[in-house]
Design goal:
Length: 143
């Protein structure tokens, strides 16, 4: 399922620990269930849930998502946002050097982009995501 821009904004405004607690409680899972799934103590899980510790590692979030029967991506996104960093997998088979260059260009310029720059980039990405949502596969053409 592809989330709309509104859905993504609402998810990302929620802090990781709030999202995790709400999800765990809604799924009626205990701290012990989560602790057992990732091999941590109940106290550790409680500390994360109450915002006293950093979010879980990505591999633990996948295990937690299995226990909670949910999509791990919103939790991973919230964890990354909480950690103030983002990781991109540049080793996907469908990617070319163009993908790598684009990611590096965005990362290098990140601190220098203006609000107008970000708005333009967001408009382009929104257009592409709309095509994806409609089931239209988008291919970048080489110039």
């Amino acid at each position: 399922m592809i989330l709309t821009k509104k859905d993504r904004k609402e998810e990302l405004t929620m802090k990781f620990h709030e999202m995790f607690r709400e999800l765990r409680e809604n799924r009626k899972s205990t701290l012990k269930n989560i602790a057992d799934a990732i091999g941590k103590s109940v106290v550790y899980i409680s500390d994360v849930e109450n915002g006293r510790r950093s979010p879980f590692k990505e591999e633990d979030i996948y295990k937690i998502a299995d226990v909670l029967n949910t999509d791990p991506i919103p939790l991973i996104d919230a964890a990354r946002l909480s950690k103030k960093r983002l990781e991109l997998d540049l080793d996907l088979p469908s990617q070319t050097a163009d993908f790598h260059n684009m990611a590096l260009t965005l990362a290098r310029g990140w601190a220098h982009y203006t609000n107008e720059d970000v708005k333009k980039i967001s408009e382009i990405l929104d257009e592409i995501n709309k095509k994806i949502e409609k089931g239209v596969k988008h291919h970048a053409t080489k110039k």
